[in-house]
């Protein structure tokens, strides 16, 4: 993976200041979206995927681990939250907690197995495990198979915020996204993040310094899975359903796509990538099956022309860390 | 800690007995008994394919021996994972310069300092808590003559400087013993002199075992030399004695061609 992250700039105080400015801009832009006439459902959906891609990026961009099964966290948290809200009648905040916790546990179990191998083998194990879950969810009664869990009640968050009002829901999703984003940002720039980066850069050397690298990779995997799950739980309130689409391997592929288009190992790349991909699906829907073809072409040209991704190229151009 | 005194109980910091590594019938290392004296610079030399690097990787636990025993400070470490061995103060370097390329020189050293002081799993804290290691990191960089490179990403540093950075990173762990894998590989004359002087200087405080091709470096630096051929110990002694040894000459000049 190192070839893809060759151009990572070292973190300096200036870089952190730049990033905080961009973060403030991003938050401000997203906060005014409901007053611009942009379809809020589209932005909410994109925010969920953006958080998902950021969580995925934590693992690959900073840990050098390419998971090809991240849809399993999105889908599992979605199913569990949906079930908790609809069948158990839990309030939204608990529904989110339960779903996210399920993803965390899944991260622990699947991470424990997959980090024992490296490179392509790691990726293949994550893919195999997510496929295993897919067939489990296809058969399990509580997921309602092909139908999925439909008509999920949105309820009142903390008994106050009525999530059935699009404007309220929008800001709840936005706050959730920003909180998740900041947590990832902090993890990247933490003592743990430093070790993680050193493992990405040169694992044998990190071992020779006395780091039990498997433990760090496992923690990164769990963190990434948990936050991906959090995105899945939030998405349940937006889509009001939980379906097999979210655990399908093609979803895992889309997560990789979003991150690569935006810029692997960049802070804001996955957000941009997610918005680009979701916007394409939204606004090119008229082309039907051709959307996939168009996506493919964009993906190939991105890899060929902007190897660093949109944000990665911009950061390189400005000699800034973004 | 001051070394160089007389140690009766633990004169040898690292010892192997019957150390063997077999790859499907081929013995890369066979029955090697090595004793490294505390506070010495011990060199492991031998012609290409003699098993130096395999032997080295066995000692650092990056390879598992198929037979024999490795004892470090009296403790059997034969079955111990590499990260644990590093925690005991036995730290290795790599043949290809092992730095973290996209971290600055300062960050490279800090990663090593950070390990001993815990908090390396804290993902919720700002990395500014690591700033408390900066004075020590600067000190270490200064020690190896890299002060001006503190904020330079390792990838942009000249090759010789990378090796110096690697040594600074290793020293940050405050090891008792350093295993250096061809510290001069791929270096120009000027750099070799610098690194040799550096190794000589740090050897006052640490035990050093190195694998090295460059015989003039070995001659100048080592207190004791072990010569390996075909995976086995051929001879051991100081450079003056070994350079007169017919068997060693033969091994280096290649008896098969004579």
Automatic annotation (TrEMBL), chain B:
Keywords: ATP-binding, Nucleotide-binding, Transport
Gene Ontology cellular-component annotations: plasma membrane
Pfam families: ABC_tran, BCA_ABC_TP_C
Domain of life of the source: Bacteria
SUPFAM superfamilies xrefs: P-loop containing nucleoside triphosphate hydrolases (SSF52540)
Position of the signal peptide: none
Keyword Nucleotide-binding part of the UniProt annotation: yes
Domain ABC transporter, first and last residues per copy: 14-255
Keyword field contains Flavoprotein: no
MF terms (GO), sorted A to Z: ATP binding; ATP hydrolysis activity
PROSITE patterns: ABC_TRANSPORTER_2
Function: Involved in beta-(1-->2)glucan export. Transmembrane domains (TMD) form a pore in the inner membrane and the ATP-binding domain (NBD) is responsible for energy generation.
Protein name: Amino acid/amide ABC transporter ATP-binding protein 1 (HAAT family)
Origin organism lineage: Bacteria, Pseudomonadati, Pseudomonadota, Alphaproteobacteria, Hyphomicrobiales
């Amino acid at each position: 993976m190192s070839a893809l992250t060759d151009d990572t700039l070292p973190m300096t105080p200036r870089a952190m200041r730049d990033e905080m400015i961009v973060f403030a801009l991003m938050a401000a832009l997203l906060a005014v979206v409901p007053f611009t006439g942009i379809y809020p459902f589209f932005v909410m959906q994109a925010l969920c995927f953006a958080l998902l891609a950021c969580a995925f990026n934590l693992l690959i961009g900073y840990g050098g681990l390419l998971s090809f099964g991240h849809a399993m966290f999105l889908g599992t948290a979605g199913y569990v939250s949906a079930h908790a809200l609809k069948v158990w009648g839990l309030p939204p905040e608990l529904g989110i907690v339960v779903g996210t916790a399920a993803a965390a546990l899944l991260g622990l179990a699947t991470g424990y197995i997959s980090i024992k191998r490296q490179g392509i083998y790691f990726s293949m194990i994550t893919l195999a495990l997510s496929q295993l879950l897919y067939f489990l969810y296809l058969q399990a009664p509580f997921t309602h198979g092909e139908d999925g869990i439909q008509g999920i009640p949105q309820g009142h968050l903390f008994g106050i915020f009525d999530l059935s009002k699009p404007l309220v829901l929008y800001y709840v999703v936005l706050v959730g996204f920003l909180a998740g984003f900041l947590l990832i940002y902090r993890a990247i720039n933490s003592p743990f993040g430093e070790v993680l980066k050193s493992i990405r850069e040169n694992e044998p050397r990190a071992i020779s310094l006395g780091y039990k690298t498997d433990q760090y990779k496992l923690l990164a995997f769990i963190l990434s899975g948990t936050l991906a799950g959090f995105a899945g739980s939030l998405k349940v309130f937006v889509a009001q359903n939980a379906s097999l689409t979210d655990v399908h391997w093609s979803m895992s592929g889309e997560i990789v796509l979003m991150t690569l288009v935006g810029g692997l190992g960049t802070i804001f790349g996955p957000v941009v990538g997610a918005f680009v991909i979701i916007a394409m699906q939204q606004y090119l829907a008229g082309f039907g099956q051709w959307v996939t073809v168009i996506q493919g072409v964009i993906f190939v040209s991105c890899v060929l022309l902007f190897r660093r991704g949109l944000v990665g190229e911009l950061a390189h151009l400005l000699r800034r860390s973004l | 800690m001051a070394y160089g005194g007389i140690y009766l109980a633990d004169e040898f910091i690292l010892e192997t007995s019957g150390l063997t590594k077999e790859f499907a019938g081929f013995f890369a290392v066979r029955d090697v008994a090595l004793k490294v004296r505390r506070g010495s610079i011990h060199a492991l030399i031998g012609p290409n394919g003699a098993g130096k690097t395999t032997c080295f990787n066995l000692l650092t636990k990056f390879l598992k021996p198929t037979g024999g025993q490795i004892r470090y400070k009296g403790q059997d470490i034969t079955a111990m994972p590499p990260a644990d061995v590093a925690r005991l103060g036995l730290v290795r370097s790599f043949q290809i310069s092992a730095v973290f390329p996209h971290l600055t020189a300062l960050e490279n050293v800090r990663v090593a300092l950070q390990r001993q002081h815990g908090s390396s799993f804290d993902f919720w804290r700002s990395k500014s808590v690591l700033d408390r290691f900066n004075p020590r990191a600067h000190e270490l960089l200064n020690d190896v003559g890299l002060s001006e490179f503190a904020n330079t990403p390792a990838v942009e540093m000249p090759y010789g400087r990378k090796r110096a950075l690697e040594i600074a990173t290793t020293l940050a762990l405050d090891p008792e013993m350093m295993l250096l894998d061809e510290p001069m590989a791929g270096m120009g004359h000027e750099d070799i002199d610098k690194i040799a002087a550096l190794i000589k200087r740090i050897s006052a405080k640490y035990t050093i075992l190195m694998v090295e091709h460059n015989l003039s470096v070995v001659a100048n630096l080592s207190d004791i030399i072990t010569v390996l051929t075909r995976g086995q110990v051929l001879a051991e002694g100081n450079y003056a004695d070994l350079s007169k040894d017919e068997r060693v000459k033969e091994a280096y000049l290649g008896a098969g061609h004579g």
